Amino acid sequence: MNKNLWRIVDGKEPKPTDLTKLVEWETRDDKAKAIIGLALSDTELHYVDLEKSSHEMWENLNKTFGAKAVNAKFSLKLQLF
Predict the structure, then answer these.
(1) pTM
(2) How many domains does the chain have?
(3) Calpha distance 51→33 (Å, rounded)
(4) 64 in a domain, yes or no?
(5) Per the count of CB atoms within 10 A, which of 7, 9, 12, 29 is most buried?
(6) Residues 61, 48: contact at Cβ < 8 Å?
(7) Which structural domain, as residue segments, surrounds residue 54?
């Protein structure tokens, strides 16, 4: 199933200013944040629990874990597409 979330997570679809589009974007961002959060262990979750968007979560995880998490990132991408 296409969850249509990856473009938000990778930052290619920025937060819109139009109110009607903003509501849909925030709903999708919340779904992406939930998927990312559920994919992390409790010890990993503290790296992203203060981030406001799924893109910020993703960037923080990328900075923290980098290339060490290639397989996990691939698995997470499959859940987001």
Answers:
(1) 0.78
(2) 1
(3) 9
(4) yes
(5) 9
(6) yes
(7) 6-80
Q: Would residue 46 count as lying in a domain?
A: yes
Q: Is residue 24 part of a domain?
A: yes
Residue with tokens 């849909």: 24
Is residue 1 situated within a structural domain? no
| Per-residue pLDDT tens digits for 53-68 | 999 999 998 888 875 5
3-state secondary structure the chain: CCCCCHHHHCCCCCCCCCHHHHHHHHHHHHHHHHHHHHHCCHHHHCCCCCCCCHHHHHHHHHHHHHHHHHHHHHHHHHHHC
Tokens 């998490």 correspond to 69
